[in-house]
Amino acid sequence: MEPSEKYEVIALEGELVIQRIQEIRQQVLTAFQRAGSLELDLSGVTAIDTTGLQLLCSAHRSALKNGSSFRITTPVPAALASVWRGLGLEREHGCVLDRNATCLWKSGEVR
After folding, report:
1. Is the pTM above the cut of 0.90?
2. Residue 1: pLDDT above 50?
């Protein structure tokens, strides 16, 4: 990330689940529009489902397509990590868009 890049941090709390996905999606979109680059702090997230995981992946892919930065602060709560591991999301390589090896699921660590 370049020093001149405008960067915004969003701290999410509670459940990152289908019932809240539109609200959280709007927060993410607004932050990208405002800052261009985004960091999500998931330390206050107590639960996540597949729609929450899809939102994280979609935000990362959108950032890659737009030349923006996106990352998740670490450490990620163990309960969340167990969900993505249980779903088999760990990867050796990111998707075809991930030319800089920033995939959230790469090498077994949410980034």
Report:
1. no
2. no
